Sequence to fold (433 residues):
Amino acid sequence: MNDMLQTAQNTIIKTGKAMKISREVIDRLVQPNAIHEFIFEVEMDKGKKRLFQGYRVQHNNNLGPYKGGIRFHPNVSRDEVQALATLMSIKCAVAGIPYGGGKGGVVFNPKECSEGELERISKAFARAISPIIGPEVDVPAPDMNTNGQIMKWMGDAYAAQAKSLKLKAKNNEILATFTGKIVKFGGTLGRTEATGRGGVAITEALLDKLKAESLKLKAQSPTPYTLPPKPSVAVQGFGNVGFYYAKIANERGMRVVAVSDSKGGVTQLKAESQKLKAESLDVDKIMQCKKDKGEVAGCGKKITNEELLELPVDILVPAALENVINKENMHKIQAKIIIEMANGPVSEEAYDYLTKKGVIIVPDVLANSGGVVVSYLEWYQNMKGQTWSEEKVNKKLHAMMHDAFEEIWQTYKNKKISIKQAAFETAIKRIIS
Fold:
């Protein structure tokens, strides 16, 4: 069992026991409803046929259709997909949307394939999962190394299957089976930025609470501090999520003083003083530089990923990989607030250590749920045959993120538990009620 799956299941068990839920109900929450494994064949460019291993885990559908992305990666495994499906059940419940949790994946490296091979693999996997998905059954979306174009290919394959099977479904409902699509093929405006934008909305909601309650926090926290008017932010990960989080945080008045990708990063902080008076980085300029040079590290004063995590910033945003904050570096973390934009970026041990120190950690199931919220809004538009403006999508996203945060914050304050436990309690309560 991998660490992410173990952590997800442990958190559900721990929260369920604290809520005095029966062991039978807890076991049902931990175990998925179904695990589907597929072996499918694809003809490659040179005419040779190759076998691929794929998975679709359907964790829980008490609240609605299974919902979750499909990832293409050589390290995809059954345990990883199960862990992510479990977290999707919690995430959808936390966000207050009528979905359950699912996840899928295919074991291969898409970077080693031509576009034609990628299309054939995508369509073959879609045909394999067609009998177990549908707009009111299971709604896949993009994830690691998949995108709107791949969703279109999969959607086309599913539509062809639906036609051959003579399914009684309207075209718009068939369209709704996959979300995260290209806008001109049924996708929604605002989807690209949604996860980052939702994370910033959660951060702002937290900052508003902390400013309102700063005197109380100073009295209670072992590491008291006063939030500056423009808090400093370091973002690890400069893909879609990290870039849009940094860009929108800057626009909203925060100071993004460090960013990085897998090869390293850049910072505005001065090493000799480490004073946090630096102005924000030009996030758009860094992205253009990254496109030109192939990496963030060549776009300013260099910093390693390890150094970025240990900067004395107000807000640290791990937006790349799991377990980047762990027992090896948890003693060096100086940030007062951590916003988990990646899935599981703080290990279980590090989480316990940092929260006891007074660090406020907003869990991934809340912080990065903006993507699935807008996936739901895309699905809703497809099902109703509607098309909304980007402004309307963003307004609904902000309102739904704010509502989710408010309920979890009240549980956190009233029960004096961690925000993560409050989020899991809220989700579990909704799933079993």
